[in-house]
Amino acid sequence: MAFGRPRKLFTEAELYDYAVGALARRMRSVAELKRLLRNRVEADTEFGKTLVELIIVRLKDQGYLNDAKYATAFSSYRRDNEKFGRIRVVNDLKAKGVHGDVIEKAVSSVYDDVKEEALARDYLRRKRLLKPKDQKQAARIFRNLMRAGFGSKTIFTILKKWDVDEETLTELESESTEASH
Fold this sequence. Notes:
69% of the residues lie in helices and 0% in strands.
């Protein structure tokens, strides 16, 4: 079965129903929903742009669309279920088009009382990553934790407690400084 382009919706009621359905499937940021709606109208026309903005305002007024609530729910889900660190959550929210101030407030409220080392250890347990036996495994764990959004200070604390040799730690530290530049 071939998938064509999505059918263009022309009336406000059709577009509104589509938007509510999309929000019923999962929570979305304002930017994500705008992208979805633009695919459903002639976005390059003034009418299409106005229609999308009208639907967004209507959904915000009704309380169906709220980036602050979205960011808070997203942050706590990623912390509790996926055990991701603060940096990863911030980057994911930026990718979803949430405004920086909203991200900062939401992530701070969710991560302020969290001990990063404990969360990183929970992440390692979730991924079934054990104490490294050699330099290669230590590097793998280091990169895994970096991708998961943990700070290098926390990662090195965990690796030192696992008695990873100083030479490996020095190499990983130089790798992390190169990656941040």
